[in-house]
Amino acid sequence: MEFRIEIAPPEIRRPKPTDESALGFGRIYSDHMFTMRWTEQGGWTDPTVRPFSDLKLSPASLVLHYSQTIFEGLKAYRNPEGNINLFRPRDNAARFNQSASRVDLPQVDPEIFMRAIRELVELDHEWIPKSKGTSLYIRPTMIATEPYIGLKSAQEVLFFIITGPVGAYYQEGFNPVNITVCDRYSRAGPGGLGSIKAGANYAASLKAEKEASSRGFSQVLWLDAAERKYIEEVGSMNILFMMSGTVVTPPPGDTILDGITKASVLELLRQWGVPVEERRLAIGEVLGAQRSGELDEVFGAGTAAVISPVGSFEYRGKVYHVKNGGTGQLTKRLFEKLTDIQYNSSSKKPDRFGWVHEIPLPAASGAASQSDSSKP
Ligand SMILES: *Cc1c(COP(=O)(O)O)cnc(C)c1O
After folding, report:
1. Would you say residue 83 has pLDDT above 80?
2. Among residues 297, 322, 198, 326, which one has the least CA distance to residue 254?
3. 175 pairs with which residues across the strands?
4. What is the C-alpha to C-alpha distance for residues 226 and 145, in angstroms, rounded to an integer?
5. pLDDT band for position 345 (50/70/90)?
6. For residue 253, is pLDDT > 60?
7. Which of 238, 249, 335, 338 for a ligand 1 pocket mutation test, highest count of atoms within 8 Å of Cβ?
8. pLDDT tens figures, 255-307
9. Domains located in the chain, CATH noted
10. Is the model's pLDDT at 370 over the cut of 50?
């Protein structure tokens, strides 16, 4: 498939952020985006890297009414050689297709998904921040664009990818989060959308998250929808508990997102010889371990923060502090190992799992100015 590349002319390019310590998350976008259209009859056409711009969409577009939309989230890191690292991007491509399948959106060839990301990060490589902990966030998205307000699967679809620089999640050392166990609302039910990155899941979580935040908690820990008894996950992270030296985490299923960070954590733990159990875990068992002093560490795992220590959790009005409320040893070691792999060149420091997908930058392009690359 031929890609069209439309380079943003210098006059529409935006200034890159100069203060990398104030990047935050999700408000700044780089100069280019990728788009590709699909129709039932014609399949995918027009793969195009183009200047970042607003979309033109009918107010009748199916996505706006019935949430037929999915997304992915991954990051590009600048390594010490100046090349670009992606972390297990093929797993994102595969999960994107699983998500698409569940909400009856079309499949994207993983090679096209990969090439689109590569073209984007190469072209906008100057947007990849350089300071420790920063990265270029990549957001592939698919939406049902067909204008029709009857309920059905769209026969016209748009796949797009936008990117933008994001800040270090931890500015100065870890800050353990305090979370609240939600036994009022559900995020996902059996046979529903919980295992995929469908926009609708996050709409279902917003009210609980706002209520939690107004009470001073930064995240919601979800329980299973049927009994509100078994631990599922946190809003955008999977959750792991170390109890008596064993790391226990709920298995991926149809109500829990199968996180790439969590899968990597489990592989590292197995390599380190730390016992791991993927099984159903009742909140009562966690409270029991807490009471008997056997709850050693609790942490979340997801692309945004990589590893997020949980300092305390609230359940039915009572707050429980995990040990001293600080960051556990294993939590810290996992964070350091994972970020070490993500930020370093795969050649210099072989990651034995083959997780890093390194995109070499041609020597000249490292110094390319905006005007050099603005030829039509
Ligand atoms: C994205 C996401 C995660 C984490 O997945 P990663 O692949 O590790 O980024 C966990 N839970 C939910 C609900 C998510 O959307």
Report:
1. yes
2. 198
3. none
4. 34
5. confident
6. yes
7. 238
8. 999 999 999 999 999 999 999 999 999 999 999 999 999 999 999 999 999 99
9. 3-171+353-372 (3.30.470.10), 177-326 (3.20.10.10)
10. no
Determine the distance separating the centroid of ligand 1 and the alpha carbon of 220, expressed in angstroms. 14
Among 69, 209, 236, the mutation site with the greatest number of ligand 1 atoms within 8 A of its Cβ is 236
Reported as a single tens digit per residue, the pLDDT across 6-18 is 999 999 999 999 9
Q: Return d(Cα 333, Cα 285) in angstroms, integer.
A: 25
Rounded Cα–Cα distance for residues 14 and 17 (Å): 9
85 neighbors 355 (Cβ within 8 angstroms): no
- Of all protein residues, whose CA lies closest to atom 5 belonging to ligand 1? 259
State how far the Cα of 283 lies from the Cα of 179, in Å rounded to an integer: 13
Question: CB under 8 Å to 43, separation ≥6 — which residues?
Answer: 106
Is residue 154 within 8 A of residue 177, CB to CB? The reply is no
pLDDT at 368 over 70: no
Strands 135-144 and 156-166: antiparallel
Asked if residue 264 lies in contact with residue 338, where contact means CB atoms within 8 angstroms, the answer is yes
Q: Are 125 and 119 in contact (CB under 8 A)?
A: no
Query: Is this structure's pTM higher than 0.90?
Result: yes
C-alpha span between 298 and 328 (Å, rounded)? 8
Per the listing, tokens 């014609």 go with 42
